[in-house]
Model the fold of this input.
Amino acid sequence: MKSPRKFTGNALCLALLLGAGFLLTGCQMGSKPVFASLPDTSPDAAAPAAAPAAVQPGNKFQVGDLVTVNFSGLENTIPPHEERIKEDGTITLPLINQVKAVNQTPGELQRAIHDFYVPKYYRNITITVQSQNQYFYVGGEVKGANRYPYLGETTVLKAVQAAGDFTDFANKRKVRLTHGNGQTVIVNCLKAIEDTSLDLPVYPGDKIYVPRRLW
Done:
C-alpha cells in the first residue's frame, strides 16, 4: 500500500498539471490574433476619394480697371477697343454691346467675347484682352488691407509698407505670400529686414496675408 504522503504528492502534481492545461486552453479560446487589414487591390475596389483641388481666384478685373480688347484674324481690321469697366461691371463692344467684365480673368473675358462674335458675326476671330491695371493684394494684420496697383518691381516688405505697415498684433515671422499659380511661401519679415535676400519679390496677382500673433 502506498503511503499517504506519497499519494498526496502525486495528487498535487496531477492537479497542478491539469490546472496549467486548463489555463492554457482558456487563453487560446479567449484571445484571437489581431492582424492589420490589407488594402483591397481587386479591380472592383473603389479608389480613395481625392482631396478637392484648391481653386485660385487669379487676377480678376474690378470696376474702374482699364481693359484693352484687340481683334485679329479678320479681313477687315477692327481697331482695338479700350475702356474702363463701368459701375455695372460691363464694357461695351461693337455689335455685341455690353459684356460682363468684372470678376473675370483676362482669359475668361477673352473666351466670353470670342463666343459672342463667333459664329453669329464672324466665322473666325482672335480676341486678346489686356489689363493696363495690375494689382497685388495685402490682407490680415496690416493697417490698410486692400488691393494695390503693381507699379513695378516690389517685395513683401514694400507691399506691407504700401498697406500702411503692420498692426501691433501682426505675426511678422509668418507672413504668407501666395503667388498666382497657388504656390505659397512663408516669409520671416523680421529676418528679411536684416537680410534683403529673404525679402521675396511680389508679382501682379500675388496675395500677402499677415496672421495675428497668438500672444
User: Anything to note?
Assistant: The first strand starts at residue 66 and ends at 72. The radius of gyration is 36 Å.
